[in-house]
Amino acid sequence: MPGLLYGGDYNPEQWPAGVQAEDAELMRRARVTTATVGVFAWSKLEPAPGRYDFGWLDEVLDRLAAHGVGVALATPTASPPPWFSLAHPEALPVDAGGVRLSHGSRDTYCASAPAYRTAARRIATALGEHYRGHPALAMWHVHNEYGTTCHCDLTAEAFRAWLRGRYHGLDELNDAWTTAFWGQHYTDWAQIRPPRRTQYLPNPAQVLDFRRFTSDELLAAYTEQRDVLRAATPGVPVTTNFVLGGWVPVDHARWAREVDLVAIDHYPSEPGMAAEEQAAFAADLARGWARQSPGGPHWLLMETAPNLIYTAGRMHTKEPGRMARQSLAAVARGSRGALFFQWRAPRGGAELFHSALVPHAGPDSRVYREAVALGETLDRIGETAAGTVAARVAIGYDEPSAWALQGAGLPSDRLDHAEEAQRAHRVLWRRGIGCDVIGVLDGLPAYRMLVLPGHYLMTDAQAGEVRAWVEAGGQLVVTYLTGIADEHARVRTGGYPGALRELLGIRVEEFHPLGPDDRVALVPATSGDLWPAASGGLWSEAVHLAGAHALLRYAGGVLDGLPAVTRHAAGDGMAYYVSTRLDPEAYGHLLATVAASAGAGPERSGLPSGVEAVRRQAGDRSWLFLLNHTGDEHDVPAAGVDLLTGAAVTDAIRLAAGGAAVIRET
Ligand code: GLA
User: Fold this and answer.
1) Is the confidence at residue 1, as pLDDT, over 70?
2) pLDDT by residue (tens digit) across 8-28?
3) Which of 340, 351, 355, 357 has the most ligand 1 atoms within 8 A of CB, as the residue to mutate?
4) CB 236 within 8 A of CB 127
5) Which residues have CB under 8 Å from 354's CB, separation 6+?
6) Which residues are catalytic?
7) For residue 202, is pLDDT > 70?
8) DSSP letter assigned to residue 152
9) How far is the CA of 24 from the centre of ligand 1 (A)?
10) Which atom of ligand 1 is nearest to the CA of 303?
11) CA torsion angle for 195, 201, 204, 210 (degrees, to 10)?
12) Which helix (H) or strand (E) is 64 found in, with range?
């Protein structure tokens, strides 16, 4: 797959032949390289059990091949046909309240139902065999956005089998789940159920293990399709599109090892600059996952909306030029291209107003014209596909920690690991400091600086990795709620944060969570230290020094005079602790100072806020992506050739408002 991929989800089954013919022409005009086909087409591909109708899809693939468009061919298993659900009601998912859902939307399947798994394997096998060697076949796209949770009796059986693999007997499970609390002690495996809706608070370790089980069960459903496809079409990459969000019961860091290319779907949920920040976070997270993957460090933006940002019950239409700039921002961060949901806007169905490269208005539209221009742009910068992004800073983002902090019964109901990770990312992004967001802590030697924001769960092995890395010279920033619990969500006692207490040289005696409007004032611990006026929110705690030095102290209130931010030398490295949610200025100051001492400063210093500089490199070749997300012109230092215009750049380039440049550097 040389060059960059461009295109998106294509649903020809929704359209008559004339429109499909027009699609192929419009794709050629827009230089589309890739169409994702067949995602929800199961009922058309297998109209009755075991009876396949691939004729229409043959025509689609033949036509696309003739127009130079490669196909990411989907297995349609995210949307079982009506006949399947009627024949196998036990394969419909059951919610936490014990209610079995009905057919009528998508994702109406239970991954533990043998009938579903068999039917899914069968259609995947049929597709693999039928399209082996087809010239359009570029990639397999298994399923769509794995993420369905089921609580049925078949799931219960599978959950118990999974638990038997995880624990050496019931004693170990009872201990791990702290079942002595509220008399939940199990004396027989058969007594264990998925955490269905119950009287009051559920057991947090049971909930956490059920999420892990669901992730593994869905992964097994994915890998068995993948293996069938690999056997049928060796050499064709197989992947699935990861969906991001707190509800998703998938541990993507583990999944990344099983896909040939990490692919994500991303839809910002805020308009304005926040959308750029969210997109940058998602991209850096995808790249972090991709480092675990056979296809890494490249990854792919598989789906995003061409022309809308959906937020707070309203679709915001993107400003002219934004689709292209956001695509370049993804490519800058290592994406293998820019694919969209979707090619042509549907006339009906549940998502009839979701945006598309060919909107309801048709090709005579701003969006399609921008789509044509974007195709040309991606063509011009195709050489950048060879490059990778080298980050010296990492942020730890651990999905099981995020799940654990979603539980009830915690000291505050406003704790959110994903939000903590995004906050850390945002302050670095605003200062132009590039980073990977990493889901596992075993690749640390690649980084000079690591931020662990609310990494609530921590195993002894993870704590050991972090300690060894700091002692070898790493610069670590740990925030509140990191390393509090073990992998079973049991608190490590003796003073928080049990897993990292010694490394940080502190001991936290008790928490003082704050209300939504509470702020705590913070002052430099040593007069003359240069800090912006600092304050904290959300959280505070009673920190005692045990070898560390205070940098900021609480001023006023019950914690008056106690350390709020600390620093502790360990081996050749340094470990910082942040005990409250610092305001963005103070947090930015801290992270930028640590990054500077770690030799991990911004790609270009002094850029105006909202202007990004990101570098992709391959050996001695490098490309500097400059993205101006602001409404003003800006001059940015650069030297080389701007691939977008072909113009030579000697020492600076003027970026138009909302404009971009991709400089092949000299
Ligand atoms: C994801 C899904 C698509 C569609 C879009 C709409 O990308 O994969 O099928 O639902 O979201 O936002």
Assistant:
1) no
2) 999 999 999 999 999 999 999
3) 351
4) no
5) 305, 308, 341, 342, 345, 346
6) 145, 303
7) yes
8) S
9) 22
10) 7
11) 10
12) helix 55-66
